[in-house]
Specification:
Elements lengths: L5 H15 L13 E5 L31 H6 L9 E3 L10 H10 L4 E5 L2 H4 L10 H18 L4 E4 L5 H8 L3 H9 L4 H4 L7 H28 L3 E3 L24 H13 L5
Parallel strand pairs: 1-2, 1-3, 3-4, 4-5
Length: 274
Amino acid sequence: MRLARPSLVLAAAAAAVMLLASPAAAAVTPPNSIASMGDSITRGFNACGWYTDCTARSFSTGNYASVSSHYSRILAKNSAISGKNYNDAKSGAKAADMPGQAATAVGQNAQYVTILIGANDACTSSEASMTSVASYRASIDSALNTLKSGLPNAKVALISIPDVKRLWQVGKDNSSARSTWSLFGICQSLLANPTSTAQADVDRRDRVRQRVVDFNTQLAQACAAYGPNCDIDDNAVFNYPFVLSQVSTWDYFHPNTSGQAVLAQASYAAGFGF
């Protein structure tokens, strides 16, 4: 067996060094500020009090120790981000509200922006009132255009909408969950008649879930069009098999503190790798 010539060995070694030093392999510098866009999930709604926002427990910009939010994880690596955690989300928001929230994030000169939006576009009073896929995409594109023009160097993390049908699956056999969904009219497009096995109800639930799947597909496509400063979680949050104990017992819909913690873990692990 002939030994490789020294020149070939050196060339291979040089190629390996170049690969390790390439931008794809390099660590992403932790940002000095973070802004979160979204709805009540991002506001930490019902995570610490009766029908109230609890931004300290937000998976994105909160500072509650056990949640270990994106902000907290970055703060552990970069002290310059301290106090620059802006929660621009609003309870009840839909995709149509994202352009306005994006403008707010631009005004804050955020270096990192998380976006989780769409639950309220699918979870409505009836199936007929869900946001169309085309309208959802138009709102997302408008918001991303605002961020790209106003914050061209910022990193933008798009987070998949949780699987709302999973909520029905883990809660339908719980009498407290069923009565709460009915009493407060929660996500009736999906959660109406929760124990029904009638084909019409089975098909309705599947269509609502498909709308969420379609929204997440649009998020992935919009992120790809945005460019390398955008990251999509590849359905990490959508695919997470959350359990009823991770949902607030005040509405059996929003993540409680432990739910915010798993949301933080799943979304951050699938992100930029700060």
